[in-house]
Every structure is written in C-alpha cells, then in structure tokens.
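Morning F.,

Quick status update on the modeling queue. The single chain you submitted on Monday has been processed. Sequence for confirmation:
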Amino acid sequence: MRAEAIRYIVLHCSATRSDRPYSPEALKRDHRARGFHGAGYHFYIRQSGTIIPLRPLHQIGAHVRGYNSCSWGVCYEGGLDPNGKATDTRTEAQKVALRQLLVQLKALAPQAEIVGHRDLSPDRNGDGHIDSSEWIKLCPCFDARTEYKYLTSPTTPHGK
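Structure tokens below.
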C-alpha cells in the first residue's frame, strides 16, 4: 500500500481487561486462530507506552472489514475494565505514545482521517451519519475522531 492510498488511520483496542497483560505474542496467536496471517494491526501499543510494529505499512492489514486496503491499523492494549466493561483504559504512557505515533503516520499520509473502528460501522439507517446505535463494536472505547481532530483538521494548529 502506498501512503497516498491511505484514507484512514483506524484506532482499535485489544478488548482485553486492563488488569491483565496481553502480549504481542498473544495478540498474534489469537489473530492466527481467527484465520489471519499474524496480527492484523500495523502497530500495537502496550500499557507501558511501548509501540510494537506488527506489519509493515506497505502490507495490507486485517483489522476492519471493507477498509483494510485503504487504512493503517493501530491497537492499544486494553479497552475493558477489570470487570470486563468496555471503557477507555489507556494509560498516560499509551496516550503519549499514541499521539506520537499518529503524528508520524499523519506525516506519511496527511490526507488520512483518524477514526475509531466503531466509526466505520455500516450506516444502517442510511442517514449519512453513524451513531452509537449503529456501532458494531465499541472499539476503541473512546471517541478517536473527536480526540484527534486537531491532527486531521488542516485549519487547527498542532497540539490541543
């Protein structure tokens, strides 16, 4: 995939409990068990803020049906509280690492829109807007489009 073809940078959560580690090896194993050829994301961000590259950017991902050929996938470890409820569990280190990674990816594909997996759900009622009742998944458990709008909008200065 060429950077010019990238329309979306799609954020995901691993949908795992925040009080239990979920290693990149476990992620790869689980994706292989679902029939993928390794992890479907391009990057994985651990709770520590460590960014793990999983797929080269030129390789099509396997992270959001219908959009893989025009997107890069970024996943953070977590997304469920200790009781298994979907919530924004990103650590401060993950937030910092995610911002840094998104800045780098936007430099490579400035036309790309930053969205959450849920934002690419089908528009079931056909009104041109995907609202929470239409989400297939809650992933990434926060409003990525709004949170990172400052990186997408050409009229907004860098930073919040």
